[in-house]
Design goal:
The chain has 348 residues and is α/β, with parallel strands linked by helices. It has two domains: 5-240, Spore Coat Polysaccharide Biosynthesis Protein SpsA, Chain A (Alpha-Beta Complex), CATH 3.90.550; 252-347, no CATH class. The protein is 41% helix and 22% strand. It has helices at residues 18-26, 46-53, 68-81, 106-114, 193-199, 215-225, 252-261, 264-281, 284-289, 291-308, 311-320, 322-335, 340-347, and strands at 5-11, 33-40, 58-62, 92-96, 100-102, 120-133, 142-151, 154-156, 162-164, 179-181, 188-192, 229-240. The strands form two sheets. Strands 1, 2, 3, 4, 5, 6, 7, 10, 11 and 12 form a ten-stranded mixed β-sheet that branches. The longest helix is centred in the last third of the chain and has 18 residues, at 264-281. It is globular and about 55 Å long. The mean pLDDT is 91.
């Protein structure tokens, strides 16, 4: 029988992280899982390492980098194909980045909540930052498991941006209360298989047009519209080497400065996908009510990226995808269970 939990990893030249991730997965106290690795055309030895050290792991190898969203969709489809329709309501997919290190009870703490909260489609724990040096050198490498927060859930704002709650803060117990959140960071999130089926559009769960960045926010938003809650479980802890981040509590100018430090390709996807998010998920009445916060922020973003960061390409990319985004928007609307005002409360 296929296990209750499918742990899905997307790798792309991730060898400096995979060994520690796999060790932490195999040390889990909850054991009813299997591991699926979707390799996006790596050339750093991921395939050989996995086949040698973890022969029972399912390895799906792509010839090129398909992106985070399409590759995770492959892994999710693989899991769903191995569960019957009856099984799906009690089965789960744990989506994880390769640059994660689990504490031994991470999965056990989450799975302790899934039956008590059937209304929840996603679950996540307290994600803290990991820092490391010489990660490719087994002898010299050093990993620091810090008390600095990476994410305690997705936090929506009046200007219709969504950030990682608590990002950059020191963990002093301010997020030690279990409770509902808007969604969970895609770096590490446990999805109920039935919720993924509900959010499915053709062969997609994450929107494959996003490629990478903010596809987790899009899925969280759609799950909210479809009536699924998200639960934050602080007892479940893990660590994350995050490549692209800034503190949650930062103003527009600080965010602009942060953009300048990121690669052009990351800024392109992050900027384009923010506009795709709004196209797909924001209702007209939301836009009108949020105009005093939304308009200045998005105007500043547009002007900045056009002037300094080749943002016209991002704008044109979003415009080109608008017809398919509107089709996907309509597909969600046909199944929507929550009113616009219920969703809007998260952003107020």
């Amino acid at each position: 029988m296929y296990p209750n939990v499918s742990i899905n990893i997307v790798a792309w030249n991730s060898m400096k992280f995979i060994p520690d991730l796999m060790k932490s997965i195999m040390a889990q106290t909850y054991r009813d899982f299997n591991v699926v690795i979707v390799d996006n055309g790596s050339n750093d030895g991921v395939e050989a390492y996995v086949r040698e050290h973890y022969p029972d792991v399912v390895l799906i190898r792509n010839a090129r980098n398909l992106g985070f969203a399409p590759a995770h969709n492959q892994g999710i489809r693989y899991a769903l194909e191995h569960w019957t329709e009856t099984d799906v309501k009690d089965r789960f997919v744990l989506v994880t980045n390769p640059d994660i290190i689990f504490t031994p009870t991470y999965l056990e703490e989450l799975m302790a909540q899934v039956h008590a909260h059937p209304e929840c489609g996603s679950f996540g724990g307290k994600l803290l930052r990991a820092f490391g040096e010489n990660l490719t050198d087994e002898v010299m490498k050093e990993t620091i498991h810090s008390d600095r927060i990476d994410s305690t859930g997705l936090n929506p704002h009046r200007n219709f941006t969504v950030t990682d709650r608590g990002a950059g803060e020191m963990d002093e117990g301010q997020f030690d209360t279990q409770g509902p959140v808007f969604g969970i960071s895609g770096a590490l999130v446990l999805y109920r298989a039935a919720a993924l089926q509900d959010a499915r559009y053709k062969d997609e769960f994450f929107d494959h047009h996003f490629f990478a960045y903010k596809e987790d926010v899009d899925l969280a938003w759609r799950l909210q519209q479809l009536g699924w809650d998200a639960l934050y479980v602080p007892q479940a802890k893990a660590f994350h080497y995050r490549g692209m981040y800034g503190p949650e509590k930062s103003g527009l100018m600080q965010k602009l400065r942060n953009w300048r430090t990121k690669s052009a390709i990351r800024n392109f996807y992050s900027t384009r996908n923010q506009w795709l998010l709004l196209m797909k998920n924001m209702e007209v009445v939301h836009a009108i009510l949020a105009l005093p916060w939304l308009l200045p922020y998005e105007t500043a973003r547009f002007v900045y990226v056009v002037l300094f960061d080749r943002g016209l390409k991002a704008f044109l990319g979003a415009l080109a995808l608008s017809p398919v985004m509107l089709k996907k928007r309509q597909a969600t609307r046909l199944k929507q269970k929550r009113s616009g005002s219920e969703i809007r409360r998260w952003f107020i």
